[in-house]
């Protein structure tokens, strides 16, 4: 029986700046590279086929590089416990190397069970930190200094061409032939996975696109090119946050980029900040981070929920964003915040009714960012400013010519601004002229915006003043906010 090490890839699908692989190869023990399509995750309600297609594309990209070293990433369609148990029958596993995963309870539970099994099997499991996230942190003392230190450390390099990776001829147990056919076809409009494309996307940002980042970050149409578009590549680890940050620093003095790079630098810091929140209090997957908001009541009208999910609320920008997400997996940050605000504030629907739906749609779904952000926009933290977005104002401010709305809501293609932003105000004659049927949701939106906004403000601001909310807020600030 052959002694081996295993590098277990999860949300770190790259061959550069990869500490677990570097540590495993430095040991000079034959090393197996492994990815598991776990049934528990494939069936989880947070995920969609778009995610697994992106993962398969990322693995395929890695394997094109690994072919030069006569090896590949082994793919198994098994639960982690079953896979490692089977592998232990075929090999004598010395060590397993992986990154810590800041994931959902389903992955935390899997990791707890694996840790017990590895201990019993006398297999050492070395887990490298995820970015600048500190496992088990209970406060933010010196956290910013730690983040800066990690982001400026040298890029980890692994010599895969002269390494101890197990050769192809010994990897005949790979289950890649179980890959669904639908994963192997690119989906028009949705970004394709892989480190090569991640770097191409990053380079194109610094070549020209990034000059417009600062000015167009909030616009639903222009942001599709002006933003970095790196979010799925970071979420699935095709490129490391450190690689992006150091590329940013290398371009710091390029003329015309400074304001955009200052804004981007803040976003990269923000990335780890929110994941650290989730790492430190992962129970927010199931409850509001401010426990007192567990008493906040909602209307939870399922008809309105369905209208929101499908993009038929009657509010043009809300529907355009939701339909865009269904088709492409991407809208910018402001539009995401508006979607959550509209759901929880205007529709008066509990955030848990929408959190998995948007997770399935976001190609860049990252649990550690998704849950803290969702709750912040839903106004259930008690520590953040309550933002009740007015989708009509957002449309006027950020899609003034209506190009984004016209693109994704063809029913309104003939309606010009400013009528486009409040189509329910059209006269009967105008509605006929613009070919809107009487039962169109744009003539009969699911709620009255003025009334719902007023009700939301009264409900949320009065609740924020409760003693139990304030007490919980103090605990949250002590745990998740850096001290002055």
Structure description:
This protein has 484 residues and is of the alpha/beta class. Helices cover 48% and strands 7% of the residues. The chain has helices at residues 19-26, 39-42, 49-66, 80-90, 105-120, 143-152, 195-207, 213-216, 223-226, 231-235, 241-250, 258-280, 302-310, 316-328, 333-346, 352-361, 367-378, 391-398, 403-408, 428-433, 449-464, 467-480; strands at residues 2-9, 31-36, 73-76, 91-99, 124-128. Strands 3-2-1-4-5 form a 5-stranded parallel beta sheet, sandwiched between helices. α5 links the parallel β4 and β5. α15 packs across α17 (367-378). The chain is globular. The model has no long low-confidence stretch (mean pLDDT 95).
| Strand fraction | 5-15%
Rg from alpha-carbon coordinates: 24 Å
Q: Based on helices, strands and strand pairing, what is the structural class? A: alpha/beta
Mean pLDDT: 95
Helix content: 40-55%
- List segments where confidence is low: pLDDT < 50 over at least 5 consecutive residues: none
The count of DSSP E runs of length 2 or more, i.e. the number of strands, is 5
Question: What string, H for helix and E for strand, traces the elements in order?
Answer: EHEHHEHEHEHHHHHHHHHHHHHHHHH
Lateral strand order in the biggest sheet: 3-2-1-4-5
